[in-house]
């Protein structure tokens, strides 16, 4: 029970690992929402500021509108910068929440203390529904600004208005915490489900490596990420068909899993793929020749130590003259030559 409560308030009813997997999606969502929200707020508050210059009834809030206009513009700039500097994402989120909460508080307690507060109550209900973060942090933020509002109400408003505004703030604050946590839970659960479906669509179920779908999608990204060189290593497990026929498919699966783990350990999970029944591809970005030769030699040794054999070919191209398709074709050709040489000395039927 305690673990369930902990996961709910910290990770929106998921778990830490799942939450961390979708954190980038949450950040992107917050960046977009912050940009849209701040731009709309800028337009609306700027209009109110202009009205305050010409309409007497709005003039008492002119400085608040001016501050809100400047703040909205600043928040919009931060949301754009957050695309490049992700650490600014949550700064933008809580600046938005803080800025507009304080805006509502100022309207209700400083510029119009004689009226019942409406703007702050709207902000209280609206803001927790827009942004996504850990429910506990959102709840603490709401409680903090409700406390500030109540303190200013006691200082600035008449006893008659105090009773109404304080009770409203408590009721709407509790509603904001409850509704905000529910909406955050739904959004985070959606991100987690989307991530799991993505992983399933891009992961080979037998070996755990990236599958062909992922391979074809990521091929286009390699020329942009390598600065010096790119190496393609093409691997084909020899004797899979014969092993399946003589010892069963379980033995063949074990061989593929062992080779896959060896490839992943040496070249990393991100750049290792199973692209066919017994074919694997791995990429090495900006690796030195010595490092590459060491990894390829170790991969061969690991496979041979288990009594397996794999044909292997690799090719390296400089980043400046890189043609990804030619790189792969060259590595594949070398692999087929190695495979041909192997079967010249190893009769398929005997294996």
- What is the gyration radius calculated from CA atoms? 30 Å
The count of strands amounts to 4
Tell me roughly what share of residues is in helical segments.
over 70%
The percent range for strand residues is: 5-15%
Structural classification: alpha+beta
Distance between the termini: 57 Å
**DSSP summary: helix tally:** 15
- Give a quick account of the main beta sheet: strands, pairing sense, barrel closure: 4 strands, antiparallel
Counted up, domains total 2
Q: Which blocks of ≥5 consecutive residues have pLDDT under 50? A: none
Please list the strands of the largest sheet in the order they lie side by side: 2-3-1-4
Nearest-integer average pLDDT: 90
SSE pattern, N- to C-terminal: HHHHHHHHHHHEHHEEHEH
Task: Choose one word for the global shape.
Answer: elongated
Structure report:
- The chain is α+β, with helices and mostly antiparallel strands and 351 residues long.
- The protein has 2 domains: 2-202, no CATH class; 212-345, Alpha-Beta Plaits (2-Layer Sandwich), CATH 3.30.70.270.
- It has helices spanning 2-11, 16-21, 23-54, 56-59, 62-81, 88-111, 119-130, 135-156, 159-202, 212-218, 222-225, 240-247, 249-267, 289-305, 324-345, and strands spanning 229-237, 272-274, 279-285, 310-318.
- Strand 2 (272-274) and strand 3 (279-285) form a beta hairpin.
- The relative contact order is 0.08.
- The chain is built from 15 helices and 4 strands.
- Strands 2-3-1-4 form a 4-stranded antiparallel β-sheet, with helices on both faces.
- The radius of gyration is 30 Å and the shape is elongated.
């Amino acid at each position: 029970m305690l673990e369930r409560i902990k996961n709910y308030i910290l990770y929106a009813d998921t778990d830490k690992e799942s939450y961390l997997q979708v954190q980038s999606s949450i950040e992107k969502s917050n960046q977009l929402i912050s940009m849209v929200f701040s731009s709309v707020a800028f337009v609306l508050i700027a209009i109110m500021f202009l009205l305050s210059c010409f309409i007497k009834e709005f003039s008492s809030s002119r400085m608040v509108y001016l501050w809100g206009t400047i703040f909205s513009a600043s928040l919009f700039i931060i949301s754009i910068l957050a695309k490049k500097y992700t650490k600014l994402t949550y700064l933008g989120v809580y600046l938005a929440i803080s800025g507009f909460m304080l805006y509502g508080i100022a309207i209700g307690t400083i510029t119009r203390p004689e009226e019942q507060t409406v703007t702050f109550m709207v902000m209280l209900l609206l803001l927790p529904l827009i942004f996504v973060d850990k429910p506990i942090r959102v709840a603490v933020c709401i409680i903090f600004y409700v406390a500030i509002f109540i303190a200013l109400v006691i200082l600035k408003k008449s006893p008659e208005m105090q009773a109404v505004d304080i009770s409203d703030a408590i009721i709407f604050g509790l509603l904001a915490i409850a509704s905000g946590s529910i909406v955050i839970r739904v959004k985070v659960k959606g991100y987690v489900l989307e991530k799991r479906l993505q992983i399933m669509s891009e992961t080979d179920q037998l070996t755990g490596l990236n599958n062909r779908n992922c391979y074809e999608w990521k091929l286009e990204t390699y020329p942009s990420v390598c600065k010096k060189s790119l190496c393609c290593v093409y691997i084909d497990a020899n004797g899979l068909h014969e092993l399946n026929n003589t010892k069963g498919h379980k033995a063949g699966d074990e061989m593929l899993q062992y080779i896959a783990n060896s490839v992943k350990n040496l070249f990393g999970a991100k750049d290792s793929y199973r692209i066919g029944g017994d074919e694997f591809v791995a990429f090495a970005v900006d690796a030195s020749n010595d490092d590459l030769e060491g990894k390829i030699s170790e991969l061969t040794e690991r496979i041979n130590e288990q009594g397996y054999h794999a044909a292997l070919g690799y090719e390296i191209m400089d980043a400046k003259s890189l043609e990804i398709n030619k790189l792969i074709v060259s590595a594949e050709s070398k692999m087929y030559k190695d495979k041909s040489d192997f079967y010249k000395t190893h009769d398929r039927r005997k294996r």
